Amino acid sequence: MSVSDNVIEVTNLTKKFGEFVAVNGVSFDVGAGEVLGYLGPNGSGKTTTIRMLLGLLQPSGGEAHVLGYSVRTQAELIRPKVGYMSQKFALYEELTMRENLDFYGGVYDVPRRERAGRVRDVIGLLKLGGHENDRAGALSGGWRQRLALGCALVHQPKLLFLDEPTSGVDPSARRAFWDLIYDLAERGVTIFVTTHYMDEAEHCHRVGIMFRGQLLALDTPSGLKTSALPGAAWDVIPDHGSASLVMALTALHDVPGVVQAGLAGDRLRAITAPDAHTADSLRATMLSNGFADAQVEQVEPTLEDVFIALAGHDQRT
Ligand SMILES: Nc1ncnc2c1ncn2[C@@H]1O[C@H](COP(=O)(O)OP(=O)(O)O)[C@@H](O)[C@H]1O
Ligand SMILES: [Mg+2]
């Protein structure tokens, strides 16, 4: 590895498909043992970034080093050393869990005599016990997801790429999966994980926000909330009924000091400029707009608020 402790170093990485720029000059580093979340909606360039980092796609511009190797010229040295759970991971439906793990051990060149032990380790690590002899095709979504993670771990990589690993699984399986991600990180595995779930990104050490091929920001979740949202976040509950919710949103947009307002379930979420409002002053503006029962509560900003602030700004420029 080079002079730094970075496991991934990316400089101005760009991918064009014809005229279309799928990844536009992104730069970032990932340190050893970090869980880096790459958050962005569908089509924002997350998978394309991973495919370049694995050397599966040649960049159109820029450079990246993974484990010290250039993705442009040394890709064949990178792939055996990293684990990759792709968005469309492939399990052999007719094979059992154990047979799938053994098969991927072979793909990653784990010597035959070590394979049974490695498979046993992965089953223990990911708490897959009890289902070793079940056909992959008979497993539920959450178990399939964990088996796919296991398949990416049989060769004991120190760096793991997970591309939307929890998409389509139920919330309790998502939580269980994130517990596994932490376990791996505590064992020193560096993890690059993409998601379009804003709440999941809160679990990462640092989060990069991708939008239309650009990395708009990258920081800790709390750092993002202070740098992208200098003011305060509020829940505004006008009163009961969705018609009043939409009218209240229109009113809220026009309140001086409100920099961002939107629907958030059965309530409104507002972001205000620094020191622009207290709960009382914001409530008073709602009262003067005819929402006599309005309630206002200050809340912790979420990464969704951050995303809207950054992506909304990007749309205007
Ligand atoms: N091989 C390709 N040829 C043309 N366009 C592509 C190709 N791969 C991805 N794209 C486009 O690049 C953009 C980013 O895609 P992707 O990286 O898959 O986004 P994400 O993973 O964030 O959903 C999308 O608009 C997608 O349609
Ligand atoms: Mg993708």
Give the integer mean of the pLDDT values: 92
Beta fraction: 25-35%
Rg of Cα set: 23 Å
Taken from the alpha-carbon principal axes, the silhouette is: globular
What's the CATH class of the largest domain, please?
A: Alpha Beta
Q: What is the third-level CATH name, the topology of the largest domain?
A: Rossmann fold
Major β-sheet annotation: 6 strands, mixed
Oligomer: single chain
Report the structural category. Answer: alpha/beta
Note the gap between the termini: 39 Å
Bound small molecules, by name, code or SMILES, are: adenosine-5'-diphosphate, magnesium ion
N-to-C SSE string, H for helix and E for strand: EEEHEEHEHHHEHEHEEHEHEEHEH
Tally of DSSP helical segments: 11
Helix percent band: 25-40%
Strand runs, count: 14
Strand order of the largest sheet: 6-7-8-3-9-10
Return the domain count: 2
Show unreliable segments: none
Briefly, what is this?
This protein has 317 residues and is α/β, with parallel strands linked by helices. Helix content is 35%, strand content 28%. The protein folds into 2 domains: 6-225, 3-Layer(aba) Sandwich (Rossmann fold); 230-300, Alpha-Beta Plaits (2-Layer Sandwich).
